[in-house]
Amino acid sequence: MEKVDRGELAAFLRHRRARLQPDDVGLEAxxxxxxxxxxxxxxxxxxxxxxxxxxxxxxxxxxxxxxTSAEQFARESVADLRAAAARYxxxxxxxxxxxxxLDASDDFGRLWNxxxxxxxxxxxxxxxxxxxxxxxxxxxxxxxPERDQWIILYSAAPGTPTHRALQLxxxxxxxxxxxxxxxxxxxS
Length: 188
What we know:
Strand order of the largest sheet: 1-2-3
Oligomer: single chain
Protein name: MmyB-like transcription regulator ligand binding domain-containing protein
Number of domains: 3
InterPro entries: MLTR_LBD
Mean pLDDT: 77
Organism: Frankia torreyi
Number of helices: 7
Distance between the termini: 65 Å
Order of helices and strands: HHHHHHEEEH
Largest sheet: 3 strands, antiparallel
Domain MmyB-like transcription regulator ligand binding: 53-169
């Protein structure tokens, strides 16, 4: 199989995304578009995936985890998926996901064949945020077994560089993640 030039693929996808308008695909344009074409959120919505997943998997995406954290995250994720497969043995969605991952990734196959089963409760993650850089986060998973729902909490110890970065994100994040602003009213 021939290797894909990820830089070239990323440039192609950016170019195609810039040529599409929301109206072309049945979406509302909204306000304050700084660049032409579809936003990442709109591409993710059309592809049926979360924005975070789209950003993490697109060609040319910058590294989000350091190498040690990425390996730990992969191991924990596969062990957690194996626990879900054991808990829901007749779930076609889980079986299909495992089959597709086995077909797509030798690394997944290696970890899956270790047969490690673990439900994550807490861990540490090191993530690279595009605006504030590396964040060292405590990650706690709380489970409500009655509803079979999970709440994931990310936190940082007060006074640490990560805590200060999260405080900064409280301010700059509102500038990007809020609802589209109303267009300015012209006065006569």
